[in-house]
């Protein structure tokens, strides 16, 4: 297993989000994507000396964040329970720019009363962005949770629904 990481700065209105992206990959397959908001730090990291899977992922991530890509075509695989894998397969089917509720996702996987278990499977998703759990919201329309933080979830939904990370009218 190899690892690569990169820091990106995204405009998010009056402030900027600093995201630390870390991936684990082997040959051409990405196994985990970690996204964390950094509160402090120096300059964003530049070019990476890493394998093809990491280079391809970071290139596609840049295209996605610029609004030039709606689907990732990086090979990926994740370890999890059968139920988690079923939820994650369904997450990939949610179209770019659309959201569904945890309850709707539970119904789609054949467990309509298991919306809390579905929410937990979303939280445990080892491949955010590639398996877009940020597209799942609460039934009442609120964001719900997000393992990477609600500021990042808000930014990703704004990007997909409004064409930009921030939600201001500049």
What does the model show?
With 170 residues, the chain is an alpha/beta fold. 32% of the residues lie in helices and 23% in strands. The protein is built from five helices and six strands; from the N terminus they run βββαβαβααβα. The chain has helices spanning 52-65, 82-92, 102-108, 115-123, 150-162; strands at 2-12, 15-26, 29-38, 75-76, 100-101, 136-137. It has a four-stranded mixed β-sheet with strand order 1-2-3-4. It has a two-stranded parallel ribbon with strand order 5-6. Helix 1 links the parallel strand 3 (29-38) and strand 4 (75-76). Helix 3 (102-108) crosses helix 4. The protein is globular and about 45 Å long. The termini are far apart.
Topology overview:
Layout: E1 2-12, E2 15-26, E3 29-38, H1 52-65, E4 75-76, H2 82-92, E5 100-101, H3 102-108, H4 115-123, E6 136-137, H5 150-162
Parallel strand pairs: 3-4, 5-6
Antiparallel strand pairs: 1-2, 2-3
Helix share, percent: 25-40%
Indicate the overall shape: globular
How many DSSP helices?
Answer: 5
Spatially, the strands of the biggest sheet line up as 1-2-3-4
**Quick one: biggest sheet?**
4 strands, mixed
- What's the count of strands? 6
Succession of helices and strands: EEEHEHEHHEH
Gyration radius, to the nearest Å? 16 Å
Q: How far apart are the first and last residues' alpha carbons, in Å?
A: 43 Å
């Amino acid at each position: 297993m190899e690892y690569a990481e990169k820091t990106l700065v995204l405009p998010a209105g009056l402030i900027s989000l600093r995201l630390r992206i870390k991936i684990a990959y082997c040959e051409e397959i990405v196994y985990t994507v970690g996204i964390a908001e950094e509160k402090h730090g120096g300059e964003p990291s530049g070019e990476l000396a890493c394998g093809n899977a990491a280079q391809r992922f970071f290139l596609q991530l840049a295209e996605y964040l610029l609004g030039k890509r709606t689907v990732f075509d990086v090979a990926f695989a994740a370890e999890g329970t059968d139920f988690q894998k079923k939820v994650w397969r369904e997450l990939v089917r949610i179209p770019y720019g659309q959201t569904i509720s945890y309850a709707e996702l539970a119904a789609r996987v054949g467990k309509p009363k298991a919306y809390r278990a579905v929410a937990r499977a979303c939280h445990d998703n080892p491949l955010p962005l590639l398996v877009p759990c940020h597209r799942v919201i609460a039934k009442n329309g609120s964001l719900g949770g997000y393992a990477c933080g609600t500021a990042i979830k808000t930014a990703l939904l704004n990007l997909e629904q409004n064409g930009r990370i921030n939600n201001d009218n500049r």
